[in-house]
Amino acid sequence: MKSYITIFILSFFISCSSDSADSVSIPDPTPISKPVTPASVVKYTLSVTAGEGGTVSTTGGEYESGQTVSVTATPQGEYLFKDWSDGNTNATRTITVSSNINLTANFEKRKYPLTINIEGEGEVIEEIVNAGRTTDYDSGATVKLTAVPSEGWEFVAWTGAIESTELEVQLLVSEAKEVNAEFKKILYSVSTNQIIIPNSSQFNNYNIYQSIVNITAKIYYSNSFGEYFIFGPSTSSDYSNVDSRSDAPPAYPIVLKKLNDEWVLDEIYTDAPIWLARNFKIKENVLVLGDGNELGKYGAAWESENLEDKFKWRGNAYIADLSSNKISWKKVNDDENMTWFHGITIGDINGDSHLDVGGVPAPGIKLFLNNETNGFTSNDELINYDENLNIPFAIEFEDLDNDKLDEIIFASYGDENNPVSEHNSIQIYKHNQTTNRYERVFFKKFGVGSQGEVLGATSIKVYDFNNDGIKDISICREARNNDSFEIWIGKSDIEYEPYFFQNLNQYNINIKEFEVMDVNLDGYLDIVLNIFMGSGFNTSNGLDFNKAIWINDGKGGFSMYNEKNLTVDVLMNSYTSYMKNGVLNIIAPHLTLEEINNSDDISFRFKHIKFHLN
Fold first, then answer.
1. The sheet that has 549-552: what strands, in order across it?
2. SS3 state of residue 547
3. Closest Cα to residue 472, out of 481, 480, 463?
4. b/e per residue 355-364 (b: at least 16 CB within 10 A)
5. Which of 36, 277, 443, 496 would suit a FRET pair with 486, their CA atoms being 20 to 30 Å apart?
6. What is the separation, in whole angstroms, between the first and last Cα of the chain?
């Protein structure tokens, strides 16, 4: 019994000793923050294959999670599209990639007695909707028929076993049936999409407005990355009475890109500020664009005694690399060689295979040699230009005699004060190896059709208009109430004869330059005028594009297109034109001044007209 008591007392003592000891508090450990690892981009693989009897529009690839991909299964020969391996029955579908996906398009041979006749140009896509009660599809098979017009055609109607004007119809095939799909050729189509330019304190909205609506420097180009359109910069008319360009904010090139058959804003480039882009030229995926602003009360004033006055209208020239998905701009001149670039061109004038730049008219003929590594160097002494002659407003570099070195071409800008000998003339200068300068080798007045009126050349374009292998010269000229264009036919040894002259006053239209292309696909180059909006072009039924299109007779003479009525009921400010896939394309903005303020986004309509002239 005593031993039990002793043990109990000892246990109690030990317990009490523990309770009475000073307690020690151990703080919780401070958590160590771990570095945040950026979420990695998740990618998945889409694999698309076609079973026997058809093809697929894409074989897939690697895509980021959430990316959408459009795929189309197309049957061949006597096959029909049946379904996809995941059970989807739409021939065209959009897939949202969220995991690795393997898809196969399944096709099967047609076994039902259905005959489809096509009138015109187009195709009919057949898809089985319900296979019916037997595997031969001869007892209630339901087939979806989709009419797909070819470019330049539109669907009219289904006739025969089904009567409808809808593009898609469903047909119950329980016996032999015959269906007719009728297509008709269209003359033109018009599409419109809305483009938004976000408001930014970096840009003047009224300059953006003027750049959009102004008729000059509207530039279309394409490369391996897509189709693009440039609005050449133009300052607001609010600044027309300022003392000089320095009193007005510059504008910037606005570039659109075509995505999924719609035009969208791509970028506004702030590294090419210009007050008014006038003329331009594209050669070998390189664009040259010059500032031809007329800001300042002194105007060009190259005759002013005040040296400062001589620089009022001048600006910079830029070349732009158009071969990538983004434009790289480079300034051509330094501040001492700023020029009034009414006329500008690009080509090789020193035989080093690099593209040089020329500009006119103020303060004279400006030549800039491209040394590729250090940029451009001014070398006006390269040409021996007669100082007694007036400086022209139009210049072009072009290899006229195929000696791998461009000639320099000028066209006079005459006025009543200029010598009569210069009126409506052209000059050609060729490099002389002895003097190492460009010397004049050709000078001649036009003298045909101009009826003695003094005209000013605004641009020069060189093409072979009569397909004789010799380059010809086309010139756009302006006067107070009479714009015109003319053709000089090349003979040999840089000799040219005036051949065709078209006075546009009789059609009551005014133009700013023109584009050259084969609009009717007859093998001869035609002319599409850039016409000002207004009387003569605007009619009660719309814009008269017959007056814009001039057809080459194969000899270098032109007549207004009159095979079909090309009056289009559409609103636009200005436009440019180009050919693609045998179709004449007109792209044009429409924006009113009332829609503009400096605090809101700019939203404007962009019109796309496609003329099918063949």
1. 511-517, 526-531, 549-552, 558-560
2. helix
3. 463
4. bbbbbbbbbe
5. 277
6. 127
What number of helices (H) and strands (E) belong to the chain? 2, 44
pLDDT in tens, 30-84: 555 555 555 678 999 999 999 999 999 999 999 999 899 999 999 997 788 999 9
Cα 61 to its chain centre, rounded Å, is 29
H helices within 38-193, ranges in order? none
Please write the tens of the pLDDT for every residue from 387-434. 778 889 999 999 999 999 999 999 998 765 666 667 789 999 999 999
Mean pLDDT value of segment 14-25: 43
Q: For residues 331 and 312, give the distance between their C-alpha atoms in angstroms, rounded to a whole number.
A: 19
457: exposed, middle or buried (Cβ count in 10 Å: 0-12, 13-18, 19+): buried
CA–CA distances in Å: residue 462 to residues 102, 105, 357, 408: 54, 52, 17, 11
Q: How confident is the model at residue 573 (pLDDT cuts 50, 70, 90)?
A: very high
Cβ 72 vs Cβ 57: under 8 Å: yes
Q: Which two tokens mark 594?
A: 């009332």
* Predicted TM-score of the model (pTM): 0.76
Asked if the bond preceding 249 is cis, omega within 30° of 0, the reply is: no
Query: Up-side HSE of residue 383: CA atoms within 13 Å toward CB?
Result: 29
E strand residue ranges, 277-424:
277-283, 286-291, 317-321, 328-331, 340-347, 356-362, 366-370, 376-378, 394-398, 407-411
